[in-house]
Specification:
By secondary structure, the chain is an alpha+beta fold.
């Protein structure tokens, strides 16, 4: 991109647009490999709309825009922490604002796949450094001194020889006239003041004093409230309904049939709209609905897993990865392992149930709520409702947990349909029971793992999975293996195993499934790393040593050394069960060691968990530790306490009385360590989960000799 000189016309136009403030954004030209940093005048010259990421006013107030959703994972802290580092401002004096959903301005805004830092950190650092350089140049020009004699610190530019200083606000008007510098020099990591430091999160105060706005907190003038009685089976229809009792509830205004898009089908229901959430809920309870659930199977949990495991015994599946000839080696071996693992369906269990506000106005629709994927919402709803994409305006609030569920388009679409019907703004609120029983869920999956060990090493490793492919719900090709078949399985294993086969056995049910924290790594990791432990036992080798021998990668060796050191792996004592596992997820690798023992009552207990994360370049070690700890708690629940079960196609577990989450007294001591290196940034919010369940199961085997191959299991009865 050839940046034009800022003309007086462009400067005046940009000044009017930004209110005489220095605004910088990130622009990625078509077919360009790298982003450019531009100001408002340059954006006007290129005919693109300004996407302010940094906004500095003459008062000195600095605003940094966060383009991703904050659902507890820490991007509300990480994005400004990166920008403020290079901008040289105090983070606690920065105003942080959620950007509106607009991928033409801000690029990909989907919060998922642990992608925010790893996908944006270089651009965000460059953005801050560019603003700093502009302000330094403006000050140097004002003082008529070389810019090399000036430096920035704490929101000011200082002249080194004389100690003269100007705060950023005093330099805005001059900085706006300057051409944006290219190829700015970023700081060395050794010079960081903010990045890499365990700074307190900026959203903590908001969330503890009640000023943070979550979806359920948001209100707009004239808003009504709605709840929906939905068909408990996705493909079922509303046959008829009796709303006579509902309409007698004070405050109830409307009752009508509605629907929302769920992937490529629709879930039908009956909406109750009222002047308060309470009235809507009471009206919903009074409804009498008859469903038509004909034309599709109503499966129960036992039948689902029975079919999966039958398929694993009779089908080779769609090949995902092949090297050597694992099948031939296994068929000819006199001694081999052939086992099946099973992982259950799971509900996302966000503490804030789904909710969304929509206001449909002729040719425009505005949406407010806890939304992980604003651009996907714009794409889906504009198509469904016949609106121009730019006319679907999405405002993000804080999310009380997301885990993938709030990266979906069904609940905003439902709110939009109801708003259009009643010709008024409406907030649709889901109850905990709605949230738990409507799905989509993490798919339940069965795995068949076969292997041969010869001379202490793996000679053949054959893995097949049978479970629902989330891509199929979105219309993906059914003749190709699930693209996540090997997710969680360390890529360097392929270099250490001569005969390797990984395949996907297609499997479908009418039960809707989608992403869940760490996606398929959360289930794959349990099967693959548990089986790796079985192969190590078959070889008569220490599990950590065995993995090292099959992972020809020095970076991983350093991580395993750290894991062994912090956990005391080499000084294990009799009567103590130690298990380990290591998985890769979203460009980060996490190893866990779990220690278990039996108490005086004979019941198994988890004594300690150690986790070592290698996520490459990182922002805040406290955020990393919090995310890994949270991942371990979530993994503990999924491994030992909760699952979604189905009877006749209907979810059985409707609330926390049966879908029980871990309590504080269930949580063992957890130590988290972060590897330091200069590798590219990896994810943090999800990779800490997959290795826990296999590490726990492997520890139980080490202590008791009993293999756990089915989740969840009851710790008290092992």
């Amino acid at each position: 991109m050839n940046t034009p000189t800022v003309s007086r016309r462009n400067f005046l136009k940009a000044s009017s647009l930004t209110g005489l403030a220095l605004s910088l954004g990130i622009y990625i030209p078509t077919n360009a490999e790298e982003a450019e940093i531009i100001n408002a005048a340059e954006a006007d010259s290129f005919g693109v709309e300004m996407n302010a990421w940094i906004h500095i006013e003459p008062s000195g107030k600095v605003t940094i825009f966060s383009h991703r959703a904050e659902m507890g994972q820490g991007v509300y802290q990480a994005i400004p922490q990166m920008v403020a580092e290079e901008l040289e401002v105090d983070l606690d004096k920065v105003n942080i604002v959620f950007a509106k959903g607009d991928n033409k301005k801000y690029g990909n805004q989907v919060t998922g796949g642990s992608s925010t830092v790893r996908g944006s950190y270089k651009n965000l650092l460059t953005l801050g450094a560019t603003a700093r350089q502009l302000l330094i140049q403006a000050a140097a020009t004002k003082w008529n001194v070389p810019s090399s004699d000036c430096y920035a610190e704490a929101g000011q530019v200082i002249h080194r020889p004389t100690a003269k200083r100007l705060h950023y606000g005093e330099l805005v008007a001059d900085a706006m006239k300057l051409e944006t510098p290219k190829n700015v020099t970023l700081k060395k990591r050794s010079d960081y003041k903010l990045v890499g430091k365990p700074l307190l999160r900026q959203d903590t105060k908001l969330k503890t004093n009640g000023t943070a706005t979550f979806g359920l907190d948001k209100e707009i003038p004239g808003m009504l409230y709605a709840t929906v009685e939905r068909n408990p089976r996705l493909r079922g229809k509303v046959k008829n309904f009796d709303d006579s009792a509902t309409r007698k509830i004070p405050g109830v205004k409307h009752v009508f049939k509605t629907k929302m898009l769920v992937f490529n089908t629709y879930r039908e229901g009956v909406a109750v709209v009222a002047t308060s959430t309470w009235a809507a809920l009471q009206g919903k309870k009074a409804l009498k609905v008859e469903w038509d659930d004909s034309g599709f199977e109503h499966l129960s949990t036992d039948e689902i897993f029975k079919r999966q495991q039958q398929a694993l015994q009779t089908q080779e599946g769609l090949s995902f990865k092949q090297q050597g000839d694992a099948s031939a080696v296994i068929s000819q071996a006199t001694k081999k392992l052939d086992v099946v693992y099973e992982t259950p369906y799971q509900y996302h269990a966000c503490m804030e149930p789904l909710n969304c506000i929509a206001h449909y106005q002729d040719d425009k629709l505005e949406i407010w709520g806890p939304i992980q994927a604003p651009e996907w919402v714009q794409d889906a709803i504009s198509k469904e409702m016949g609106l121009d994409r730019e006319k679907v305006i999405v405002h993000m609030t804080f999310l009380g947990g997301g885990f993938g569920r709030k990266a979906f388009m069904d609940y905003p679409h439902e709110a939009a349909v109801i708003s259009k019907e009643i010709k008024a703004p409406v907030q649709v609120v889901w109850t905990r029971e709605d949230d738990a029983t409507q799905g989509p869920y993490r798919p339940g999956i069965s795995y068949r793992c076969e292997g041969v060990v010869e001379n202490g090493k793996i000679n053949a490793f054959k893995l097949r999975m049978a479970g629902q492919n989330n891509d199929h719900w979105r219309g993906g090709p059914k003749d190709k293996a699930n693209r996540s078949t090997s997710e969680g399985f360390l890529k360097p294993y392929a270099d250490g195993i001569k005969n390797l086969s990984i395949a996907d056995v297609p499997f479908e049910t009418p039960i809707p499934t989608m992403w869940w924290r760490s996606v398929y790594a959360s289930t794959n990791g349990f099967a693959y790393e548990s089986f790796m432990d079985e192969l190590a036992h078959e070889a008569g080798k220490d599990p950590m040593t065995f993995r090292r021998e099959h992972l020809p990668d020095e970076r991983l060796h350093r991580q395993l050394d750290k894991l062994a050191d912090v956990s005391g792996w080499k000084t294990r004592k009799p009567g103590e069960g130690y298990g380990m596992a290591i998985t890769e997820c979203f460009a980060s690798t996490v190893g866990h060691v779990v220690k278990v023992s039996k108490g005086q009552d004979g019941k198994l207990k988890i004594d300690h968990v150690w986790a070592v994360m290698d996520c490459g370049w990182y922002v805040n070690p406290d955020t990393i530790k919090a995310q890994v700890e949270g991942s371990i708690v979530m993994a503990l629940g999924a491994a030992t306490q909760h699952q979604v079960t189905f009877k006749d196609g209907v979810p059985v577990d409707k609330n926390f009385y049966s879908y029980q989450l871990p309590r504080i007294n269930d949580i063992p001591p957890i130590d988290v360590y972060v590897m330091d290196n200069d590798e590219p940034a990896g994810g943090v919010g999800e990779p800490g989960l997959p290795a826990f369940a296999p590490a726990l199961a492997n520890a139980i085997f080490d202590l008791t000799g009993k293999r756990i191959r089915k989740l969840p299991f009851n710790l008290a009865t092992v």
